[in-house]
Amino acid sequence: MRTITPLVFALLLTACSQHPQPSLYQQLGGEPGIAAITDGLLQKIEQDQRIVHHFADTDIARFRRLLAEQLCNISGGPCEYTGGTMQESHTGFNITLAHYDALVENLIDVMQQQQISISAQNQLLALLAPMYKDITYR
Amino acid sequence: MITRFTLALCCLLASASSVAGSKIVATGGASSIEGSAGGGIVPWAVINGYGSSDEWSATAFTSRVGVDDFTLNVFGASVSYDNKWEWSVARQTFKLDSIGGELRQDVFGVKYHIAGELLYTAWPQISVGLQYKKHRDFGLPQAVGARDDSGVDVYFSASKVLFDQVAGRNLLLNGTVRATKANQTGLLGFGSASDNNYQFVFEGSAAVLLNYNVALGIEFKQKPDQLNFATEQHWRDLFVAWFINKHVSVVGGYVDLGSIAGFDQQQGYYISVEGAW
Ligand code: HEM
């Protein structure tokens, strides 16, 4: 009996950890959730004097579609990202740390408004944070 | 002083929509008792306030540590630029509640953020700092064997936020290595009759960010033990930090300062309020 108890515990634990976790894509609300995040973020950018000037010549419809594709793709959703690399797309803009902070702050505000769980927010931030080196000071 | 400070903070709270820097809330850390951005007793590699690249920021703070036989009151301020440079001042008043009297010390600090970004790079954010400490009531430290009334501490800090670590929450880790001659962080002067060498000490802290505004953490501060008249021990604390917004934060904690000047088991509370612009 003594040797069996830990075994049962071990089995229970593995059973629990194998419970299918909803993907980040699902936690963000699937396609409508990501559409809402993208639109919310675009609205925030439009009102943010710190960064809006970067988008003066941007085709907003295209940017919106590509950003949604990318968020869907990196969060494990059923989308292909068809845009340029982060490095290519942001070269020539000289995006600074302050600009990056501003965008992340806007994204956080939007996710808070949409009542996305802290855990899902952090999972998404973990995927976006490393893009810093490709996006800034180019 | 304290009431005027509180008044200023209330004004700040009322005008919470006024300009702040671009850094994400809580990433400026709190003000440590030496005035440098950090936790309560440990400096971090973060730069005080919310100034991101090319932005200025300023902070003012007041802190109190109350343990069995002593009370430490601190107030201070800092200015920072470009999320790279931090200049700070702090006045510490250490009240000897059981013995009577008080010891004052001023700390002038500068910190430079060398590399890495707290949130965005795989490497931690790394900073180097200097603290020039000047004792204002050196009679007692001298009487118990301290050599100098001033000293310079040099430290390297590394800080990193790791996303989605503990029940989906972010984890903040800090490590600091300090070269110091200070006895009880300088409150009992610097060096001793027999030893005027720098000592290398480690300081660390870890905090879980429950959400964007609230962190729960622990700190550990290794200390030298140079004076013969009494043993000096490492410090530790548990804290809760509430970054109400980018203008006001409050930290409360439980501290264990070990033995101080022959008084053992000095434990008690820590409270700190910071305003940032
Ligand atoms: C969190 C990290 C970021 C992600 C995931 C991201 C994603 C994207 C994507 C998918 C595109 C479209 C690429 C294409 O046109 O092929 C794009 C373009 C763009 N991004 Fe970002 N971006 C990020 C950060 C930033 C920041 C911080 C700024 C500036 C504040 C910025 C400014 C722009 C601009 C101006 C364009 C349009 C470029 C053009 O008009 O050709 N991005 N971004």
Automatic annotation (TrEMBL), chain A:
Q: Which domain of life is it from?
A: Bacteria
Any single Pfam family the record assigns to this protein = Bac_globin
The record's section on PROSITE patterns has: PROKAR_LIPOPROTEIN
Query: What family is reported?
Result: Belongs to the truncated hemoglobin family. Group I subfamily.
Q: Which UniProt keywords apply?
A: Heme, Iron, Metal-binding, Oxygen transport, Transport
Question: What InterPro entries has UniProt attached to this entry?
Answer: Globin-like_sf, Globin/Proto, Hemoglobin_trunc, Hemoglobin_trunc_I
The protein's name: Group 1 truncated hemoglobin
Q: Which organism is it from?
A: Alishewanella maricola
Q: Give cofactor(s), names only.
A: heme
